[in-house]
Amino acid sequence: MLNIILGFLPWVLYFILLGYNQYILAISTALVVTVLLSFNELKKGFILTWGTFLFFLLLLGVTLFTSLDWLTLHADLIASYALASIAGFSLLINKPFTLQYAREQVPKEFWESKIFIRINQWITGVWTASFLINACIDSLQLYTAFNPWFYQTISYLPVVFAVWFTQKFPDWYKEKKSRQLIEQSELAQKNNPFLQHNFAPVTQELEVSHLSVTGLLPKDLLGIYVRNGPNPLFPPFSYTYPFDGDGMLHALYFKEGQVTYKNRFVNTTQLQVERRFGKAIYGGVELPFIRDAKLLKPTDPSIPVKIGRFIHVIRHADRYLALHEATSAYEIDAQLNTLGEWNPSNAAEAIALNAHTRLDPQTGELFTIAYGSESIITYHVFNKKGKLTKQGIINVQHNYMVHDFVITHHYVVIFLCPVMVDFMAKMKGKHFATWEPQFPTRIAVLSRAHLDQEIIWINSEAFFCFHFANAYEDKQEIIVDYVRYPDFMMATADLKPAFLYRTTLNFLQKTAHHQQLDDRNVEFPRINDHYTGNQHRYIYTPACFHSAAASSDIYHALIKYDLNTNSSIVHDFGQDIEIGEAVYVPANQAKQEDEGYLMLFTYHKTTKESLFVILDAQNFAASPLAIIKLPQRVPHGLHGSWFPGAW
Prior knowledge:
This protein is α+β, with helices and mostly antiparallel strands. It has 10 helices and 35 strands. The strands form 9 sheets. Strands 2, 30, 31, 32, 33 and 34 form a 6-stranded antiparallel beta sheet that branches. Strands 1-5-4-3-35 form a 5-stranded antiparallel beta sheet, with no helix packed on it. Strands 8-9-10-11 form a 4-stranded antiparallel beta sheet, with no helix packed on it. Pfam families: RPE65.
């Protein structure tokens, strides 16, 4: 508001000096003040500033070199019409003059927001109307005999109203529009398929011991299986799976042949606010608004998107972390209690990291990366004791969405697929993630020893990857196994089927050779994590043999790929059963890569119940070793981990 008032200062001084019949001085003062106080606005092309400068420059020239008495006689009338013309012109070319001032006060991500633009159209329109009204008042003085003080007094009213409107209208309009959008979106959630069937959230937090087991539990199982997933506590008014929601952890504790089930919400500060209100307050990536924002406390989170830490859960240096995407992690304990935001270096701002990290099984180092709405990738490396040892920024060409990455003995490999993210895009009427196939997929190869040195860049055709299985070195090449999509069209259509791929990178020749390993629709590839960065033989993926789309994340079979023999084995649970990611758990004192178990949740559509299944990785197609009956339905989730040992 102050910047707009300063923009009018030359005009205010002009009108004041006119009152003392100092016509030339009024024009000169207005012109000088415009240049001195608004030089930056002139450089930036502000319409009001340039209109002011050109008007007074022209007026000064005409006054000095002509003898038009009517210019002096009707100076205030001409100025009022000039102001109205400048403001009206900015509306006519769809660049409201107040928009330029507002952008100086508002973060850049809101500049293209329809609401932001509409607010400034209204404000500029009111200022234009106030100038026109004043021009009409000045015109009336030519034909009526009222006291001049009467006209001067009523001429203040339109300006006072415009000032009041500029201060009050934005908040009123934003609240009105957000309320309308929230109400519309809330109704739409009733038909959201990702809030129905086994995607529907559960709200009860349980702890049940001595679960019923069919079959025999492996005697060597000692540890915790934990899986994370989106699970809104309150009915959301905006929900895009798998990008929104609260985090819920489902855990099974194995000890001495007994199993205990427990589930808990990741109790973020945003969730604490919603518990206080008893309803959803924060929006999602497709509707970033805060409901009842005026009722928030100053210490409450003000980000309009729910960030629920629901994608993954890991353990490093005896700390358990619930992860989201491109933001801080939340620390939990072995009993799933939320301890708070993870800030290992006690920095002013917690470290941002993605849902997928990479743990080197030889060194114990944890590698993390993160992206955001800016064209950078950040990286951090922690030693086995959890101390931050390396950090840095990779400048990239676009604001890529980079969900996962891989490491080898000597390298970090990051695929920059042309999916661009803007978490405030909905404010601009766009999708938060857009597929830009005119750009290549760029592959970054970084030296682990010298992460801050020159990066090897390899360009490839455009494709998309959510998840990697693993990578390893073979002489002058890096072998990368992952699940690949032909594109990323979530904004307009279902994701197309994804297939297991192998890419061979020659970082000396800067080439990438791609090979499709299978033609079945798969996702969530996992390996024996002890082989991270090393040559692996086996990959385990959920699969769907009957769906033409991958966006539902509903799978009914597991595939075990043997990359040495180019063969695979299927464990098909049947069309009545839905599954998600399976986690590989090595057997105690295992000697072979596949000497262990696959653990996963299953959902039975007919009985509407969830079970926990343990498969023998070496006898993959056989009946499960053990099936554990769960005390409640476990909704489809995302990623999980096995944490061996006592807790």
